[in-house]
Records
---
Amino acid sequence: MDSKNEYQGMWWLPEKPENKFVGALTFPQNEGAELRIIGCFDKHNLLEPIIILGETTDGKKISLINCIQTDLRTSHPGGETSVFEIDFIFIGVHFLKIEDVKFKSLSVHFSYLDEWLDFKSLNERNGANGEIIISFKKPGSVKTKLKDGTEITIDIVGNIVHPPDMHTELRLNSKSFIIIKPQQEKSFQEFRGIIRTIQNFITLALGEEVSEPLSITGITEVNKQLIGGQPYNPPVTIINRFVKSNNHKKMMKHKMIFSFDTISHRFSAFLNTWFENASSFKTIFDLYFGIKYNPSLYVDNQFLNCIIAVEAFHRYDVEGEYLSEAEYETIRQTLVDAIPASIDKFHRQSLENRIKYGYEYSMIKRLSEITQTYEKNIGMFIDDTALFNKQVVDTRNYMIHNTHAPKESVCEGKDLIILTKKLKLLLEVLLLRKLGFTEEETNNLISKHERFKLKYIENSVILSYI
């Protein structure tokens, strides 16, 4: 290994272990993982191998998953060079086929996890004769179980960092991990779904984007060894294609919507509710957290994501029908029969499709019900719900249908940014309430934060335009 983010070694395809090539795997922070080999697996085609195996110069086994060949160069002299982009790197194991990529457990560390948990593990005190005593005391682990039997454990590990000059400097730090252990082995793809659900949970709690895991280690049966007659599974280090920097800014507890301490006595119930909601609210989660993890999205896209998520929430929470589909059938048929026979067939199909769902609530009806139901939680940032509802629906219709010139209630420019910010906060309130916080608890949480206040929203947008 030449550096922390580079491995030199031999590389081959699982189905052709006899054809090995010298090469280097690099994965610099925020730039993407790349394998460059001297030679080629195929002289005529750019390949997309599911798996490439490797062994480093110091004997580490590596599996590269989801590989795409981006270049094949031939030079004289020098020969061929092949370049591959890599999605996932597994250090410490050889997976011969994709079905083997399974784990018994994964240990994950996220950005801001230490701050969110705020477990006190490091202590210092003055001893006699100028002695300074610094110690790490491991707090008790937090353990809970999801309804499918998956164990979730929060653990703290202490670590001594040895700088080059140990005579003048010594560092002791602690790091938090979330350990996921299902009842039986799961594929890495299944684990990724669990990881993303936990990532979303912490993102909501912080009100701040939590990036992809900064570190993942896993235990798999594939690399099981016998040491002294006892089975041992060496931990496998898992690296995402884009390695994130660990130098994220620190987050103070008062900036969070809620800390672990706020829900520690209800953590198990809240986490189980969140996982249940993750299935029912998949569309809502994908749309809302898609914005949180991609803040550079155009404001138009953010607005549309939000309004679709709000509508999906109402459909799940209330359903929203003027009458049942069966009761509406007679009315539907009457309306369809009233369509003139002389109109174009495509026009007829369009009208029939509009009539088909006439028993469902309109967008304005859905939004009005939501803002009325949660009125006491959203008053800090929506002072006129009737105007807000009209602006949201008219702006949405204008964007989707590109109707005539903008009306007074259609928002553009900084007004659209303000409206979108309000929609995001509305979604956060809905998610907090569905997580299990009461109306009063939700008000207590959000009242402490400037970003939930209307004047702060308006001023922040105005300042961005200066």
---
Amino acid sequence: MSGGRADPQTWLSRHRRSGQDAARLVVYTVPPIGASPAVHRDLAGAADDDIDVYSVRLPGREIRRDEAPLASMAECVADLAPRLASHSAHLRQPFALVGDCATSLLAYELARALERTGEVVPVATVAMVGRSPYFGYRDSQSHLAPTDRLREEVTTSGLMPPEITGDPDVFAMFEATVRADLAVYETYRWDEQQLQQVPVFALVPVDLAQDPRFTTWREATRQQTRLIPIDASARTAAQITTAITPPAELAKVLAELRDAGGDPIQGGSGSSTCRAQVVAAWTSLLPEARGTDDEHFLEAGGDSLLAVRLRNTLRDQVGRAPSLELILRGTTLAALVAHLDRECA
């Protein structure tokens, strides 16, 4: 059964009831690939007593095992978004969405879906060691691998324990679900439509602090993006794997969201005057720029290196930046201003 009327006990696991009559913040986490809600019990245990923590349960596992696993982002969003909207509306408390490694993308897409319906909107989405939508996991095709190779890959990456992958009969029980989970993220392509109202908190391991796959979350929202360095040395960084995010690090973020009481989090990368800053960056960087509205980036002498410089300059001065793909498609100055102007109010 789909939609918010389904029994919450089938698709949702409540880790711990708030110590208060009513929680001040509700958190919905998305377990990592192939995992069940139980893997986030420690994360929930670290949260303050006035924060309620739930984990979603997708088809193909535990008490939803008789349901076919979902193999696309669109299917996952269609399954979970109406349920989250109904459940959070019933609780009537501020809520946040938390993704773990690759499932940070599902948390992000759920926030976008909730924004579009307008019924309820999360106060934030939190990405725990997850790649940004701009990069995603399209460079991997593990979901298409033969069974033996898939077993080897998920073992090496730490995605599944050897107790499961080491026994072919046991692995066969989980193969369809993990293969479908991998397909969700390996076939995901971002349409470059940003979040409008929801800020993003990205927990990034210190050794990946300069890795654009994990630091370009600022492209995904028109609100604040905060990159929070963490020590996650136990995880396998380059793989789609269970991220070992220290519970205390997440608890700090959740406490800040709770204290904000559902109001926008202040600080971070804001925007101010737009057109003058865009024109100044454009004309100072492009060797043949005239600064006219119909001027194309490439015709103004732009190239790949200048696209990176323009993007970085706009990010520093305006507080938001267009994607490199948008610039290199040959955008006009007017189109670039219009793209950023909505963010510079």
---
Amino acid sequence: MRRLLMPRTRYHVYYTILEEELLIRVHTVWHASRRKPELR
């Protein structure tokens, strides 16, 4: 799983890349000031 910070909004996007299907699966969008999300 990867994490991308969107600096202007201070949100993190947690995602995975599914190369075989040519897709990006977004798991959650989380504000940087909150505690870390419980991801499975």
---
Amino acid sequence: MNRDPSTTRQATPSAREADPAAGATAPAPRASEGSAPPRTPAVSFLCPAYRTERYLPGTIASVVAQTRTDWELVVVDNGMSDAIRDIVVAADDPRIVLVRQENAGFAGGVKAAAAVATGRCFAQLNSDDRIMPEYVERMVGLIEAHPEVAAVTCDAVVLEERTDSFRRRSFHQQHGVRRARFSDPLTLCELIDGKVIYYTAVLRREVWERVGGVDGLGDLPMWLRIVGSGYDVRTIPDRLGIYMYRDDSLSRDAASIAAFQAFQEQAYVEAAAGSGDPEVHEALARRMRRLRYFEALRRARTALLAGDAAEARTRADEAMRMRRSPRSLLVAAAVRAAPGAITRLWPVKQRVTTSGKKALAAVRGARSRTGPSQG
């Protein structure tokens, strides 16, 4: 892959550095005569970092704590933050590489990491997430033992930022994914129909390069291209990731939700367009109905809170036509019966819900300080 001349590659003194002005890369220090050549990392973690200074030390520490040590961590300072630079330098580990660039967004950050990574496999790692100590040993071990497999994915525990405690339900469980078996390859039907991949998966480098890596707002199109091209992707039930549930998550922002849904819809449509399998197109139809159902409910709530009762009723009716569920019936009845009262009570409900979640999480946190279950 071509190196981006606008980036600077930095690390501890044992790593090579790039000259961003010239676009050239200085050679790595030569091994002394008689010494073994540097080992190629089994996996390179691609870690874009933007405004995650308070999380990044934990992310780095979780990689450094791996029971298998032939890894590389490429941190992309996606915004030229001196604090992020200082965090990486303080780690003082030659396996950790720093790339500095102006903010290029999620995909730009991951691509910048991939451009300088040297590992045989890649794994995307968000700079606010972590991995369990046995992640590399387990995941890379599986992909090395099965040359026919292009990628291995896993489950993750969910860490509440507010209470620093683990939720009882895993990442897969929260997304309705049934217990996975390594023997079952992931299919395009499953992926379009809503099966969620935990994004910190180990993927062979050559597959990443053939499909073009990540693009846009997330990694969904890449996984659709990988599975749609016939590559073998397997999932294990082990909870080897640690997903950080943040209070300031963009997933709570209405505009971000709408943009991400449009991004998802386009990815699913493009993936299905390349398949002649009728089951894939049936899965697409189901997926689009679900996405639009939840979008209609979201718009109904947004309109109601903005005081637009007419728009709220229209969107609630739209959701009910797509799926007559208890939720859609309740929303449709509420926007007709007392929209003004709901608008006034909603902030109270949110405060009560948040307080209840805090109290429950605190109790759970006291029980889970020793760490989450791996089952």
